[in-house]
Amino acid sequence: MAADDFDVPRSTKRKLPRLSMSPETFGRGAESFARFMGTPAFLVGMTVFCAAWLLWNTLLPEEMQFDPKSLNFTLLTLILSLQASYAAPLILLAENRSADRDRVEFEHDRRRAERNLADTEFLAREVAALRIAMREVATRDFIRSELRDLLRELEEEAPSRDDGAKGEQVNWRTDRGEKGRG
């Protein structure tokens, strides 16, 4: 096998150790870091750190300075740039995870709203069916009026009929629906 043979892939052995971390664990860590960076404690701590750094490297003698003012605080600039270069992607990762959670929650809320709408429509149809059924049910006033009509018909037929009762006449009192003999 020739060293310049490009048709054959190199060996798959890695020389660096492989770090195995689940994306969920890494995402939770990124969210924790992003959440911490947004706290007043982090901002105050970072301000104190930078102020102490600047004071140390400005006010102390040059032999004790590790990042002199004459070099424009190169080390501090490098540290802050490194921190920002790691913070930005971690914050974006945390925002993406938050957006994914919001999307799932929105979908859940949408499904729940659809179920509520279906339940509401079902109940509205049931109430409408009950209203229609109630129109066909005889009400108390309807039954009273029908009974009064029947009573009038009976009273009108009573004198024309001879039922063999002498001297005793049935008198129906229609004002209260009571039967009485008179």
Summarize the structure.
The protein contains 4 helices and 2 strands; from the N terminus they run ααααββ. With 182 residues, the protein is mainly alpha-helical.
Average pLDDT level: 82
Q: Unreliable stretches, pLDDT < 50, 5 or more residues? A: none
Distance between the termini: 133 Å
- CA-atom Rg in angstroms: 47 Å
Largest sheet data: 2 strands, antiparallel
Compressed to H and E, one letter per element, the order equals HHHHEE
Could you tell me the number of beta strands?
A: 2
Shape: elongated
Q: In percent terms, what proportion of residues is strand? A: under 5%
Distinct helical segment count: 4
> How much helical structure, as a percent, in the residues?
55-70%
Derived from helix and strand composition plus strand pairing, the structural class reads: mainly alpha
- Give the strand order, joined by hyphens, for the main sheet: 1-2
Describe the structure.
By secondary structure, the protein is mainly alpha-helical. Helices cover 64% and strands 4% of the residues. The chain has four helices and two strands. The protein has helices at residues 23-37, 40-59, 74-136, 140-157, and strands at 170-173, 178-181. The chain has a two-stranded antiparallel sheet with strand order 1-2. Strand 1 and strand 2 (178-181) form a beta hairpin. The longest helix is centred in the middle third of the chain and has 63 residues, at 74-136. It is elongated, with a radius of gyration of 47 Å.
Topology:
Blueprint: H1 23-37, H2 40-59, H3 74-136, H4 140-157, E1 170-173, E2 178-181
Antiparallel strand pairs: 1-2
Helix pairs in contact: 1-3
